[in-house]
């Protein structure tokens, strides 16, 4: 069976972006890593930006699948949100491509990378918004603006996991969950 050239190209580009970053990755480099001619890449992708978008789209799907894997319908909503966010942020901080992209954005301010990281954040917020809308409809949490709550949840988690640790001892998972309950998701309060 012939290898799937499109998949080989995506895998090679992911490897290149993960190792060298977006800016330093070239289509020639991707072609060498995929063991295909450069022209073959252009039969599937118009340019590097389109290839990058495809990879980030796949990455977002993987992140959402990771979050869904930890949701337990038998647990309270706040616990599931906490579990999902913990998994999302762990994925983000451990996935080689995400690490390289965050590094490139910080060090070089590459516009395409900044836009893709914003896209990833927007997708996470949309995922959370859908979960919050469902919880509000079921009466699990009080009515509020789901978009704002989703944004705050994500930013709060990032702040408590990353920013807090710069000057303080890390918070435990239970401590973070408690902060979330106190400030944002007063479960069952009406």
Automatic annotation (TrEMBL):
Q: Which keywords label this protein?
A: DNA-binding, Repressor
Say yes or no: keyword Flavoprotein present.
no
Q: What Pfam families is this protein classified in?
A: TetR_C_24 (PF17932), TetR_N (PF00440)
Q: What residue intervals traverse the membrane? A: none
Q: Which residues bind DNA?
A: 26-45
DNA repair as UniProt keyword: no
Q: Which Gene3D superfamilies does the record match to this protein? A: Homeodomain-like, Tetracycline Repressor, domain 2
Superkingdom of the source? Bacteria
- UniProt domain HTH tetR-type: residue ranges: 3-63
Among InterPro entries, the record links this protein to: DNA-bd_HTH_TetR-type_CS (IPR023772), Homeodomain-like_sf (IPR009057), HTH-type_Tx_Regulator (IPR050624), HTH_TetR (IPR001647), KstR2_TetR_C (IPR041490), Tet_transcr_reg_TetR-rel_C_sf (IPR036271)
**GO MF, one annotated term:** DNA binding
Q: Which PANTHER family match?
A: ACREF/ENVCD OPERON REPRESSOR-RELATED, ACREF_ENVCD OPERON REPRESSOR-RELATED
Identification of the protein by name: TetR family transcriptional regulator
In its UniProt entry, the species of origin is given as Neobacillus bataviensis
């Amino acid at each position: 069976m012939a290898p799937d050239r499109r998949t080989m190209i995506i895998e090679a580009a992911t490897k290149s972006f993960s190792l060298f970053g977006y800016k330093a990755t070239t289509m020639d480099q991707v072609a060498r890593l995929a063991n295909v001619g450069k022209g073959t890449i252009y039969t599937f992708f118009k340019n590097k930006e389109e290839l990058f978008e495809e990879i980030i789209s796949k990455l977002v799907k993987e992140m959402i699948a990771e979050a869904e894997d930890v949701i337990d319908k038998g647990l309270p909503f706040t616990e599931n949100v906490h579990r999902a966010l913990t998994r999302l942020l762990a994925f983000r901080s451990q996935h080689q491509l995400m690490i390289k992209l965050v590094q490139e954005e910080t060090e070089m301010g590459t516009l395409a990378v900044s836009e893709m990281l914003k896209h990833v954040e927007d997708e996470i917020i949309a995922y959370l918004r859908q979960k919050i809308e469902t919880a509000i409809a079921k009466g699990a949490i009080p009515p509020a603006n789901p978009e704002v709550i989703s944004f705050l949840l994500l930013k709060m988690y990032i702040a408590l996991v990353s920013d807090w640790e710069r000057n303080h001892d890390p918070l435990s998972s239970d401590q973070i969950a408690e902060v979330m309950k106190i400030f944002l998701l007063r479960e069952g309060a009406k």
